[in-house]
């Protein structure tokens, strides 16, 4: 047997398929042995009584994503964001290269490669396309070929929204160049109209954020993008599904064989719209889009996870401070909900919340937990079989968990640079005690074990789940 550099000894190893008590041998950053009583290695990690899981893959997080011309500035850098990811058991992130209307996309991608050189965990990028002019669409083939294998489109937000013709143009370009597509699906005009009416009536506090964008605007846009995906035979993932209505649309698309995938996030599984209804401006902490819903939606999301309709739970980490002049209060504490930047931080709390609310409360089992946090995102975004599970030949990306640790979430103990967490005071059971990326302990004994820059870019080649089916709704193949 090849000499082992590290052995994780005696843990309960969990994958999306199995649970087994065994040792994991690591050499050259890769898992090279699984078995009982492996020979001693230079570095020994005692995992007796602990769970050993695939390192989390967070396939939707906003890190250092600047909004051009805006006073809103993200609190996290790649260093702080990915450090907090690692402390929460996440070993790879897929974040975004933003795109600004009227600009080329390639310089932004280059800039994000520069910024991400401070990453602590491995990373990849979704390409945001907000302005699909012929020139911008022509930039996509070389960017995709360089390993940026997924594109994000928005159906809402003034600065980023595409109309249907533009969405179709992006879907077509993705199909022609073997890229996957992700989408923020909400009906923009309906939200804008509701917002104007609410504001005219003086209804501007945080709870009206949820009223301005009810489930039906998500359902409609989800239905519409699924129609476009079906028309072009282009696989896609609907980001941050929040409600029973959107789940129903996705379930129906999947039932007729479409490659329509879905993601939700811990905030939609643990918080309701009641979190918006707080004294003073506090409710702004829970403003995210799509909006928080009701308990019945939370129940529907867990059911969709159990059924496999929702296959991925990401954080949608949006690191906007609550205080100061560049965050939630940038337009003052009397500002309308529509002026408050969207999103909640969550890179570090994603896995503990899911473990506690999901596994410990019996809503999902350990295999489903490994699947939705690591294996499925790895497969859906082309990181598998390098990442996403624990098997010989894979990168030794591993999270070691104390499944019995109980902790009250406190922002002061998190490692992001954001000044709040929407989960303050929530008690959870289960917390990661170590995280290894390519066999190196990036977090162990409560400390970061690597310098910024340890993380590597993960270029992604074409992979099975992104391939079109070759089935069109008519006898005409528009790509022939
Ligand atoms: N909504 C988004 O679309 N992005 C970031 C966070 C959020 O709430
Ligand atoms: Zn979004
Ligand atoms: Zn997002």
Quick recap:
This protein has two domains: 6-54 and 389-448, Roll (Urease, subunit C, domain 1); 56-368, TIM Barrel (Alpha-Beta Barrel). The chain has twelve helices and 17 strands. It has helices spanning 78-87, 106-115, 134-145, 164-176, 188-200, 207-212, 215-232, 244-255, 266-270, 295-307, 350-360, 366-380; strands at residues 6-14, 19-27, 30-35, 43-46, 51-54, 56-58, 90-97, 122-128, 150-154, 180-184, 236-238, 260-264, 312-313, 398-408, 427-437, 440-444, 447-448.
What does the secondary structure layout of this molecule look like, with pairings?
Layout: E1 6-14, E2 19-27, E3 30-35, E4 43-46, E5 51-54, E6 56-58, H1 78-87, E7 90-97, H2 106-115, E8 122-128, H3 134-145, E9 150-154, H4 164-176, E10 180-184, H5 188-200, H6 207-212, H7 215-232, E11 236-238, H8 244-255, E12 260-264, H9 266-270, H10 295-307, E13 312-313, H11 350-360, H12 366-380, E14 398-408, E15 427-437, E16 440-444, E17 447-448
Parallel strand pairs: 1-4, 1-5, 6-7, 7-8, 8-9, 9-10, 10-11, 11-12, 12-13
Antiparallel strand pairs: 1-2, 2-3, 5-14, 14-15, 15-16, 16-17
Q: How many distinct domains?
A: 2
Shape: globular
SS-based class: alpha/beta
Number of strands: 17
CATH top level of the largest domain is Alpha Beta
Compute the number of helices. Answer: 12
Order of helices and strands: EEEEEEHEHEHEHEHHHEHEHHEHHEEEE
Residue share in helix: 25-40%
What radius of gyration results from the CA coordinates? Answer: 22 Å
CATH topology of the largest domain: TIM Barrel
- Mean pLDDT, to the nearest integer, reads 98
């Amino acid at each position: 047997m090849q000499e082992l550099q590290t052995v994780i000894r005696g843990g309960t190893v969990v994958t999306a398929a199995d649970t087994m008590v065994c040792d994991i041998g690591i050499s050259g950053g890769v898992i090279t042995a699984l078995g009982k009583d492996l020979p001693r290695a230079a570095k020994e990690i005692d995992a007796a009584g602990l769970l050993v899981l695939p390192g989390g893959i967070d396939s939707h997080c906003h890190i250092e994503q600047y909004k051009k011309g805006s006073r809103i500035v993200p609190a996290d850098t790649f260093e702080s964001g990915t450090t907090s990811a690692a402390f929460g058991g996440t070993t790879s992130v897929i974040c975004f290269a933003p795109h600004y209307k009227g600009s080329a996309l390639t310089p932004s991608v280059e800039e994000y490669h520069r910024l991400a050189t401070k990453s602590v965990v491995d990373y990849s990028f979704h390409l945001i396309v907000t302005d699909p002019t012929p020139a911008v669409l022509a930039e996509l083939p070389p960017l995709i070929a360089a390993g940026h294998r997924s594109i994000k489109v928005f159906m809402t937000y003034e600065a980023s929204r595409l109309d249907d013709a533009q969405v179709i143009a992006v879907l077509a370009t993705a199909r022609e160049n073997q890229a996957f597509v992700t989408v923020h699906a909400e009906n923009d005009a309906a939200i804008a109209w509701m917002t104007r009416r609410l504001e005219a009536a003086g209804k501007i506090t945080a709870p009206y954020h949820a009223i301005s964008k009810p489930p039906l605007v998500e359902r409609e846009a989800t239905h519409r993008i699924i129609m476009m995906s079906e028309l072009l035979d282009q696989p896609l993932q609907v980001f941050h599904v929040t409600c029973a209505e959107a789940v129903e649309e996705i379930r129906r698309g999947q039932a007729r064989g479409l490659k329509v995938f879905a993601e939700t996030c811990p905030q939609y599984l643990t918080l309701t719209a009641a979190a918006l209804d707080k004294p003073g401006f506090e409710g702004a902490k829970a403003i995210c889009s799509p909006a928080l819903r009701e308990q019945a939606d939370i129940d529907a999301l867990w059911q969709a996870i159990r059924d496999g309709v929702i296959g991925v739970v990401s954080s949608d980490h949006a690191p906007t401070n609550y205080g100061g002049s560049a965050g939630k209060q940038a337009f003052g504490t009397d500002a309308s909900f529509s002026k408050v930047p969207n999103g909640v931080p969550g890179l570090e709390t994603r896995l503990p919340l899911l473990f506690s609310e999901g596994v410990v409360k019996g809503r999902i089992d350990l295999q489903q937990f490994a699947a939705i946090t690591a294996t499925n995102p790895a497969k859906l975004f082309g990181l598998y079989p390098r990442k996403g599970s624990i098997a010989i030949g894979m990168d030794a990306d591993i999270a070691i968990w104390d499944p019995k640790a109980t902790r009250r979430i406190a922002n002061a103990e998190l490692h992001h640079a954001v000044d709040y967490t929407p989960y303050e005071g929530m008690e959870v059971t289960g917390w990661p005690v170590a995280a290894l990326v390519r066999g190196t302990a990036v977090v162990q004994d409560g400390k970061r074990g690597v310098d910024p820059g340890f993380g590597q870019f993960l270029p992604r080649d074409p992979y099975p789940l992104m391939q079109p089916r070759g089935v069109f709704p008519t006898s005409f193949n528009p790509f022939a």
